[in-house]
Amino acid sequence: MKKFSLFLVVLLIFGLTACGAKTTNESSKPVVYASFYPIYDLTAKIAGDKAEVKTIIPQNVGPHGWEPTTKDIAEISKSNLILYLGMGLDSWISKIKDSGTNAAFFEVSNGVEPIKSGNVVNPHIWLSPKSAQIIAKNIKDALQKTDAKNKDYYEKNYEALNGKLAELDKEYKNELSNTKQKTFIVFHSAFDYIARDYGLNEISLVGMSDEAEPSPARMSEVVNLIKKENIKYIFREEPGPTKPIEVISQETGAKILPLNTIGALTNEDIQKKADFISLMKENLDNLKKALE
Ligand SMILES: [Zn+2]
């Protein structure tokens, strides 16, 4: 009996030591926070196992209207590197900057030509493969500055990712250049950068935030446009409100297809292990179907 409890004590001590060693090991990696899903996914692909990458906004929560709690700010400010989009979408980042943190901050939209409506910049740059490539380059530069000893490792992962993004850009260009229809209808103007970069025309029911409600006047404008241009498909956003799109579908007979804003993952996305690039490919398939 005595022997047995001694054995237990030894096991316990050994267990604790092993645990302690693991924690030290993990904390030697830089901790990197990305403000929301698409930045998180691209960062995780470049960082591989050399950094601990986390997302500030939970993966299944969209970026519009989110604010960090005091607890979030305290936790995030302990990290080494914070990557945020900029363009007004994650402007709450200033609260973390003001917390007295030692973390480095990088705005990953640097270098993307913005689309403006009046003075307001449309922040949905990640949905165009062209700007996704600029975002990936900025993320790589930030990781290399923060963790110089793994510079070559990050470079290699970045090259692989950038190859896939360049391929995606080529597919968007090839598939969307010869479509019969050029106009596509969505709920909020999240797809402006696809429209600009690949020669399409996006019509949205509301502006840059999916938290707005479409006006009856806008609804009937869009209904008339669908009838006039004989548009066969309209898009419901994934994730996002579906009701106004259903109403328009019922009034016009236009069929509904999904188009993913990739600002967050849906439960279905998580289940099928989707990532940024696979969702971008699904978007291209659905755009092609709608515009043919
Ligand atoms: Zn949006």
From TrEMBL:
Record's keyword annotation contains S-adenosyl-L-methionine: no
Keywords per UniProt: Coiled coil, Signal, Transport
Biological processes annotated in GO: cell adhesion; metal ion transport
Range of residues in the leader sequence: 1-21
GO molecular function: metal ion binding
Regions annotated as coiled coil: 151-178
InterPro entries linked to this entry: AdhesinB, Bact_metal-bind_prot9, Lipoprotein_PsaA-like, ZnuA-like
Keyword Coiled coil among UniProt keywords: yes
Entries under PANTHER family matching the protein: HIGH-AFFINITY ZINC UPTAKE SYSTEM PROTEIN ZNUA (PTHR42953:SF3), HIGH-AFFINITY ZINC UPTAKE SYSTEM PROTEIN ZNUA-RELATED (PTHR42953)
UniProt family annotation: Belongs to the bacterial solute-binding protein 9 family.
The protein's name: Zinc ABC transporter substrate-binding protein
Source organism of the structure: Aceticella autotrophica
